[in-house]
Each structure stands twice: as C-alpha cells, then as structure tokens.
What does this fold into?
Amino acid sequence: MQPRGVAVVYGTAPALTAKLAAGEKADVLISLAPEIAELAKTGGFAVTQAPMASIKLGLAVRSGAAVPDINMLAAIKTALLRADTIIHNDLAPDLHSQGSWSG
It folds into this structure.
C-alpha cells in the first residue's frame, strides 16, 4: 500500500461543529460525546461512542493564594468567583456550556 497524505484539522469542539455546519467535509471526526451525539441527529454521519481517553485538568492559583481542593465543586466555584482574572484553556469548553458551574 502506498503512503498517502491525510488532512488533519484541529479545533475546539464548537469550532469543529461550526465548520461541519458550514459545509466542510470530513471522513472521520473525533470529538466530545455531546458533539458526536448532535451529529447523529443530522444524519450526515454514522456515529459510535466509546471511552477513548480521559483528560486530567488542573487548577493553578497565584502564589500566596489558598489552594482549593479541586475534588470539591464548591471549592472550585468559590475560587473562580473570588478571582479578578481567569485564564481558561479552550480544550474544555463544555464545562461551562453544559452548566457544570452554574447554580
């Protein structure tokens, strides 16, 4: 078999969903489960889901600040609510969009 080039497109889950909605074509899509489930509704893809990986997230706070116990959602929420500035990695955009931090 001869080697061939493969085009690989990277992006956040919402950005990739937008590209597909705008008509970009793909033979294979690897994304978060909610985006895959949404694609199943469109009929444009045959989908399957299985745990493929896990993501370990960490939280860093300014030197001298109390380090929250990130095993407790309330402690994370308190740290975020007390912050003047938050830097967020777009690799996990669904934490906010699914309402995990609300209420």
The helical segments are 13-21, 33-42, 73-82, 94-97.
